[in-house]
Amino acid sequence: MKKRTKLNKTMKPHWIWAIALGSAIGWGAFVQPFSWMKTAGPIGVIIGFSIGALLMMLIAVSYGFLIKSFPVSGGEFAYAYISLGRTHAFISGWFLTLGYICIVALNASAVSLMFKYIFPTLIENFSLYTIAGWEVYAMEIIIATLILIVFGYLNLKGTSISGRVQFIFALIMVVGVVLLTVLIGILPSAGLENIKSYFPTNTTALAAIISIVAIAPWAFVGFDVVTQAAEKFDFPAKKGIYVDYFSYFLCSCVI
Fold first, then answer.
1. pTM above 0.70, yes or no
2. Residue 142, C-beta contacts closer than 8 angstroms, at least 6 positions apart
3. Best CA proximity match to 221, nearest among 83, 26, 78, 54
């Protein structure tokens, strides 16, 4: 049997934390709250995501123990192989691959969407086609392609560069969220009366909360990347549990 190649241990704790946080907190956490509050109301969103966080915590705890027991690369694929065998691991691996391909495309197009809102006159040029009522422009395609090339290059250069870049971006995001919270909170017009009505008037409070619980797993997914990088930890695997927990906790706070 061919000896399994082991990965170099280059990932530091704060890099893993940044990668996990950056994978879990995407553009949806900043763009979708308006839609969520329209569907469930401010209190409905808070309660729904709190319930979703508790449910996802079971998965986070399970990941923590798996990292400690099996500090290898592969994440869910490796765990399926160890516990259930090749067939289940094959199916799990392909579903993970297809899922992450979709996420990569989604996040690349999200960057184009951000530019479209900030620089509409620049982006809305060279119209290509319309799909589902949405106008697609060549500039959006160019930006998304460039983003994929840049981040693909960073990953090909090695996890050290990728980890550093992710850490810088994660710090910028956390600082930005804190500043926005503080600046909004000190406004003279800020107050709890602005969040009324607490629940939508066209449905029951229970239905509103359940509608948010149903999408909560999508909002929290991403911190599982800690398990996939476990073999590259430049620190004891048991510390990965705490990195995973802290990333998940901060993810819950931001969402």
1. no
2. none
3. 26
CA–CA separation, 100 and 106 (whole Å): 10
Distance CA 111, CA 105 (A): 10
Task: Give 94: exposed, middle or buried? Use CB within 10 Å, 0-12, 13-18, 19+.
Answer: exposed
Q: CA-CA distances (angstroms) from residue 80 to 20, 76, 92, 95, 213?
A: 21, 6, 7, 12, 27
Domains in the chain: boundaries: 13-184+235-254
Contact between 68 and 89 under an 8 Å Cβ cutoff? The reply is: no
Give the residue from 229, 227, 253 showing the smallest Cα distance to 241. Answer: 227
User: What does the alpha-carbon distance between residue 211 and residue 190 come to, in Å, rounded to a whole number?
Assistant: 27
pLDDT tens for 23-74 read 777 666 666 777 777 778 888 888 888 888 888 888 877 887 888 788 788 7
CA distances from 83 to 79, 158, 232 (A): 6, 30, 22
29-56 b/e (C-beta count within 10 Å ≥ 16 → b): bbebeeebbebbbbbbbbbbbeebbeeb
Q: Which phi-psi region, left, alpha or beta, contains residue 192 (left: φ > 0; alpha: ψ -120 to 50)?
A: alpha
DSSP conformation class of 11: B
What angle, 0 to 180 degrees and rounded to 10, lies between the N-to-C axes of helices 237-254 and 159-185? 30
- Show the beta-strand stretches assigned E in 30-153: 127-131, 134-137
Q: Would you say 113 and 105 are in contact if contact means Cβ atoms under 8 Å apart?
A: no
